[in-house]
Structures are given as structure tokens and as C-alpha cells.
Write a structure and sequence with these properties.
A hairpin with a 4-residue loop joins strand 16 and strand 17. About 30% of the residues lie in helices and about 30% in strands. With about 325 residues, it is an alpha+beta fold. Helix 1 runs parallel beside helix 10. The structure holds flavin-adenine dinucleotide. Flavin-adenine dinucleotide binds next to helix 1, strand 11, strand 15 and helix 10.
Length: about 325
Amino acid sequence: MEDVDCVIVGAGISGLITARRLADAGVSAMVFDKGRSVGGRLATRRIGEARLDHGAQFMTARSESFATQLEDWQQRGLADIWCHGFESDDGHPRWIGMNGMNSLAKDLAEGIDVRTDHRVFSTTWDRGKWSVTCDDAQTVTASTLVLTAPIPQSFSFVFETVETLPRELWSADHDRTIALLAALDGPSALTGSGARHEPSDDIAFVVDHAVKGISPIPAITMNTSPEWSDLFWDAPNDEIEAALSELISPFLGSAHVVEQQVKKWRFATPRATWSTPCWSDNDFQLVVAGDAFGGPRVEGAFLSGVAAAETITGWCTQRR
Ligand SMILES: Cc1cc2nc3c(=O)[nH]c(=O)nc-3n(C[C@H](O)[C@H](O)[C@H](O)COP(=O)(O)OP(=O)(O)OC[C@H]3O[C@@H](n4cnc5c(N)ncnc54)[C@H](O)[C@@H]3O)c2cc1C
């Protein structure tokens, strides 16, 4: 059985930055993710030649810490400023991953022990050690456990063990998002920045990735609103696709959809933000982090992961 200082559940940006900062501090960490790739909601997909982000579309930086990360990515050609506003220039930079948002997660994962395709199935706490078991029956032990999956997904691992978990934390719910990804045979009607960000009853955000600068051919991601997504969540796929085709038509101009895919995000956006950047319990050596703590954005998730790492390095210093 492998033993590490820290097991991290979730290789989204919060889990990855926690692992990176722990590695910098000499704390060994192993990260598990149920997905085929790292990144979680920093997600990029290919449809033929097209490249489309289908989770987070851009990032903003209000904190020095995240601004420093963005500048590092920019210097290495991995991220850049897309625009300073969608309908008009508000002077506030929107950043993107130059090879898609997922490539930034891959960059953070470099040199970290990340095991993808590993769904954490259960955790147990016994005499100061966590045992973490995955669905392939692999078990790893660790002094410290970090949970960065969306809270409803983290809940089952610890609710029977850790009686100090605040009840309000676990009742926090998430908005859902149904997204349409469509590769086109010509330029879309989305000009300027290539995005429409005027939330309506049906649509939250629409972007053409060729105009955004990450796809060699026109390709649209359309994120529907939480209300629309709730309405269609359990509908048959052909009904969802027909309704999405109608919604996307004003953005196509004279182009046609050559191939499309539907992506459903069950835990797209936490409805509330917890009052501290992560939740921790020293007795159980447990940290819970993610965008439900730092705020429902890439930057919020990043800052929560940084706070998780600082909490753990603080515990390590106390122990020495
Ligand atoms: C459609 C959409 C559009 C968005 N647009 C923007 C935007 O434009 N700008 C912005 O700043 N933010 C945006 N966001 C929000 C942003 O993507 C998130 O806030 C951020 O990526 C969350 O990171 P995280 O690490 O907290 O969680 P996640 O990225 O969700 O990472 C959690 C990880 O845990 C893994 N996991 C779950 N359960 C298990 C398990 N049992 N075992 C192992 N692994 C598990 C998941 O596979 C996932 O990879 C958007 C989100 C969505 C869904």
C-alpha cells in the first residue's frame, strides 16, 4: 500500500495548485481524478479540426496571486488576454489558455503525481491516518486529506467520520449547465470579441472559438442558462438537441453546423460562496476546498487551492 503525506481528491485547478504548492514546500501529494484528463471544469474538446472550451471560457484576476500565475503563463506563451469586455471595452482583461483552458491545468499537473481515471470510492480515518480507496480497489494512506470535488460529490467521503462539518456547507447546491458544442462550415455571426455575454432567459454565454483565437475553424460553444438547463435536464437527448439547434440558429449567420455535441455539467456553479477560502479541521487533518469557497470562478478555485496548501504546510510546521 502506498503512503504519502497528502491525498488530494480532484485534479481541477484547485486540487492541482494545492499539489503544486505542497510539492514546492516538500510535502508529497498524490492527486486522484475520476476524469480521463486533468482540469475538471477547465475543459477543452476537439471536434474534427475544431478546438472548443466547454467549461470555463476565460479568466479574470482580481488578486495579486492569480495575476502572477497568469503572467507566468503569458511569458511561457500558454495564456494571453482575449479582450477587455464583450459587448464593449470595459478595460478589464479577460484571459484565455492559448491552446484551450485545459492546457493550463495540464501545465500545473507537470511533475505532480496525478492519477486520472481513478474515482475515489471511500475514505476511512483510523489512528491519525486516512485510507483512500479508488474504484479499482487501489488504497493509499496519507496523514492529510484534501477534498476539491464539488461539495455534493465530496460529502459522502467524510460525513460519517468528521462530526465538525458544518451542516450549511453540505446543503450548498449548484446550478446546472447544458452546453452545445458545434463545429461550423464557415464564419459565424459572432464578430468583435466573438462572444455574447448578455445573459437571457435561455442563454448564458455564446462564443466562437475561431474569433477567440484557439480554433483553426469556426466552432461555437453555447452555454444555456440555469433555468433552461433545469427545464431540459431530464428530457430525451433528441429533444434537447432540437431545442439547442433552435437556440443557436441566430448565431450561425450563413454557416451550418457540421458536427455537434451536448455536454451536461451537473455541478456547474455553486450557488453560494463559503465565508473562508477553504474549510479545515486540524484534528482530522482534513481540508475541503474548491470554487464553493474561493468564489464560483477559475480565480476563486485557484485561491481556495492556495489556501488549502497554506493550511497544510502550517500543520506540517507545527508537527516538526
Ligand atoms: C459551463 C461552465 C462555464 C464556466 N465559465 C467560467 C468562466 O468563463 N470564467 C470563470 O472564471 N469560471 C467559469 N466557470 C467556473 C470554473 O470553471 C470553476 O469555478 C473552476 O474551474 C472550478 O475548479 P475546481 O477545481 O474547484 O473544481 P473542478 O474543476 O470541478 O474539479 C473537481 C474535480 O474533482 C473530480 N472528482 C469529482 N468526484 C471525484 C471522485 N469521487 N474521485 C476523483 N475525482 C473526483 C472531478 O472529475 C473534477 O475534475 C465555468 C464553469 C462551467 C461549468
